[in-house]
Amino acid sequence: MTNSEQDRWTRVKGRLRSSVGDDVYSSWFARMDLESVQQESVRLSVPTTFLKSWIQAHYAERVLSCFQAEMPEVHRIDLTVRSAARALVQPKEPPQLLDARRPERPDGRAAVEARMPAATPVSTSHDALGGSPLDPRLTFASFVVGRSNTLAHAAARQVAEGRRGDPVMFNPLYIHAGVGLGKTHLLQAVTWAGNAAGERKVLYLTAEKFMYGFVAALKTQTALAFKEALRGIDVLVIDDLQFLQGKSTQAEFCHTLNALIDAGRQVVIAADRPPSDLESLDDRVRSRLAGGLVVEMGTLGEELRLGILRSRVAAARVHHASFEVPEAVLDYLARSITHNGRDLEGAINRLLAHSKLNAQPVTLEMAEREVRDLIRPQEPKRIKIEDIQRVVARQYNVSRSDLLSSRRTANVVRPRQVAMYLAKTLTLRSLPEIGRRFGGRDHTTVLHAVRKIEALVAKDTALSEEVESLKRQLQE
């Protein structure tokens, strides 16, 4: 960069500071650098994608007009991210162009267009917002609907098809399910469909990426840009919320969640458990999440598993037209692989690889041999504290509210202690969490109840049989 270019850049920054004020300049432009000047274009850089996106969206014309006041020949600005470890975007993205070679506006200033290359896919636009990587296969078209996911699919569809300004029916939409049951597929489908429509900005983030972005923004002193960029999103999609850690990060997530919902923006969240079971989250966040539409995606029934297998075979045949899987093999896989959808997809991939590499047709014998490690023993049912309270209350003819109350009568104390004992032995919940779910009791109260029932079960045959009966009911 020549001395004259450096001098003009200094004057441009002075004009920009005068135009927007010291506070705005410090927040958005203090870390913007001039990289090069080439004929009609100027190349600028900022340290984060959030700064880039925000400047593109809100100050493009102003930056360009300040340059043109010093360098009339400039008609375009290339704004790039210079940091190697960028806050939220991993794939390298092409610079977005501020192009002033367009008809002038009535006020005499050049119109400015923030544009992407014409053939840019939705994923690049999404990356420009700072989103997590999207899998092009995870769309509504490839999602197989069955009894266990019908409501979640319908709700996700409604969110994806909404328009800016439409009333939000349920906010947030909270989808929870075990591993491999389709949560991420639905969330990415919402993102693909919403961004393809072009009316709204839909941003998909994993909880890990949200945390990384927030910490990176704090380190680079661009936390304000991070917050403003997120709160300018029309639909925020957060995956794997159970991994959100850290008090400051959770507090920022809570503020962002509240700001978006209060502004009528849509929030979609997925996790592996319901809001009430996210022990690491603040009570206020859990309460806000539970206030929306909470939908569970259940385990895959055999019919749905068969539908998924047929869908994956059809997808494979797009690139391998000769790939055939006999119906008997599909039936065998649907009956035998019950764990999750990823295992089903893995089975089809194995059959495809074996068939192509060995030039052999798919047979039942070959399928049995290739997927035997995917046939897992049936996992025990995941028991919830609410289920324990319901079953115990029914067994002892008391209400669930009695178990949560402060009543100390004998007909309530014993069932409450039994329920606490079962919660400790049949779930992975901690003593403090169990106490909180039993009317906000201290963890020492839970520990006393557990030890009490353990001692009684060892010498009271009738109580031991009652407890075993309750366990069987809960595990059926």
Question: Would you write up a description of this structure?
Answer:
The radius of gyration is 29 Å and the shape is flat. Strands 1-2-3-4-5 form a five-stranded mixed beta sheet, covered by helices on one side. A five-stranded parallel beta sheet has the order 7-8-9-6-10, sandwiched between helices. Helix 1 crosses helix 4 (60-70), helix 12 (302-319) runs parallel beside helix 14 (341-358) and helix 16 runs antiparallel to helix 18. By secondary structure, it is of the alpha/beta class. The chain is built from 21 helices and ten strands. The chain has helices spanning 3-20, 22-28, 49-58, 60-70, 122-128, 150-160, 183-197, 207-219, 223-231, 247-262, 283-290, 302-319, 327-336, 341-358, 364-370, 385-395, 400-404, 410-426, 431-437, 443-459, 461-475; strands spanning 33-38, 41-46, 76-81, 96-99, 113-115, 173-176, 202-206, 235-239, 266-271, 293-296. The chain has four domains: 3-119, 2-Layer Sandwich (GMP Synthetase, Chain A, domain 3), CATH 3.30.300.180; 150-296, 3-Layer(aba) Sandwich (Rossmann fold); 302-374, Orthogonal Bundle (Helicase, Ruva Protein, domain 3); 385-475, DnaA protein, C-terminal DNA-binding domain (Chromosomal Replication Initiator Protein Dnaa, Chain: A, Orthogonal Bundle). 53% of the residues lie in helices and 10% in strands.
